[in-house]
Amino acid sequence: MLSSEETTHAIEVMGEMFPNATTSLTKTDPYHFMLSVILSAQTTDKAVNLITPALFERYKDPVDLANASQAEVESYIKTIGLYRNKARFLIKCSQELVERFDGVVPKTRKELMSLSGVGRKTADVVLAECFGIPAFAVDTHVSRVAKRLGMVPADSDVLTIEKILMQKVPQDLWIKGHHRMIFWGRYQCMARNPKCSSCPLLDICPEGRSRV
Ligand code: SF4
Fold first, then answer.
1. Would you indicate the residue range of the signal peptide (predicted)?
2. 22 confidence band (pLDDT: 50, 70, 90)
3. At what angle do helices 4-17 and 158-168 cross, to 10 degrees?
C-alpha cells in the first residue's frame, strides 16, 4: 500500500500533468449545479452539458421544477440514460428543497443526502464545487486509480476509499485530488488501455509494473 507521502506525491504528479483539472460540468448556481450532478450519473458530463441550458431556462428555480410535470421534464432530458428516474428525482428533490430548505441548497452532507437523488458522491461534489467545502468525492475513475496505484486495498468499497484518501491526503488537496484523479483516469490510466509504459508513476504502481 502506498504511504500517505507516496499517495500525496502521486496526486502532485497528476497535478503536474493536468494542472487545469476541474469539473467538466458547466458551472452554474448551486441549485442548477446540483441538478447537473444528479443528471450526470452513469452518463457523460458532455451529454449533460448539452441538455442543461434548455432545461434550466425552462425551470429557473426549485418552485418551477417542483410544480413541473414528469412528462415535460422527461422531454428535456430524454437523450441521457435513466432519464425517467432522473426526471422523477429532479422534481422530488426540488419539492423537498422548497418544503424543507426554503429552496436553498443546504451546505452539509447530511442535509444534502436527505434529498431525493442525492447520494454521497453527489453531495461531496456539491459541497466542493459550490461551497468550497473540502470533500473527496469518489467516482469510477477515482476508485480505479486508487486501487491500481495501491492507495487503497483492492477490495475497498466507495466509502472506504473516500475515508482512506481523506486520511492519507492533506485536506487542502482533497478537491484538487478528486479532479486530478478523474483526469488521470480519463486520459492516462484508462480502464482498458492504461498508458503504463510512459507513466510517471510506474515506479510506485504495482498494477503498472505487472503490465509492462
Ligand atoms: Fe495507471 Fe499504469 Fe500509471 Fe499505474 S502505471 S497509474 S496502472 S497508467
1. none
2. very high
3. 90
